[in-house]
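Quarterly update, task 2.4: zinc ion-bound model.
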Amino acid sequence: MDAAHEPGCDLRHTPRQRCNANALGRPASEWPAAPAHRGRTDEPPAPATAVTVEFLGSGDAFGSGGRFQACLLLRTPDGSLLIDCGATSLVAMKRAGVDPSEIGLVLVSHLHGDHFGGLPFLILDGQFSGRRHPLVIAGPPGLRERLTRAMEVLFPGSSTAVRRFPVEVVQLAPRVSARLNPVTVTAFEVIHASGDPAFALRVEYGERVVAYSGDTAWTDALIDAANGSDLFVCEAYFAEKRVRYHLDYATLKEHAPRLGCKRIILTHMSADMLGRSEVAFERAEDGTVIRV
Ligand SMILES: [Zn+2]
Ligand SMILES: [Zn+2]
């Protein structure tokens, strides 16, 4: 927090941003109402080393239920990171009052637009807001080339622009743990056609473990990713319908006893799944916060 603050401002923001104001200069009091589930209070008190997981986006690729695309914000005492950054995620961050410059690391599960399409916007936002500290982006093999191509398609010349902060791209190898401050991440290859390998991710901060399926058909690799985790964030695209390369609720329920995780929460839901009345697991909403 390096800017002078006006009374009552508790935002983390860059020197160029005004207190209690977003990039358009509107006071926080005039922002659109945050989803009702933000800051829910039914969670136990956080231990000193707790990680919080905030669903900035819990939707599918097509905005089902008016939800933002895949984006999880993990906050640890040693820094914050995103897991996936879909095309809508910069908007989701600003709507939730999250300063993008808070993010030092983005972990990408796979190279579909609803999971990595927000990266060009995040990088350019840093460029135009005076960001200085490094941004590390880690994901599947192919990430470096696909990110460069995405930036050039959306903003020609942007991939080679001179910036005051370094962007480091790390390509993860399956089942090889990588230490990326503030966490250790292990990728597990899953079954999802996206032009390059697709991963489930296991993210460890000390004793805390958050696992994430990404998008995938059922595979026992999810057991390896989720085993012993405190929280497993899992795709449930449709309720019963089997869609190629995706996981449905019925299949997940069948395999869930094998996962070995403490808690499951569903994400990436279509309108079909959102409309299902009785579900055996928690369902995320945009704004849901879980302490791990
Ligand atoms: Zn997706
Ligand atoms: Zn996908």
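Highlight for this quarter: Residues 111 and 194 are 6 Å apart (CA to CA).
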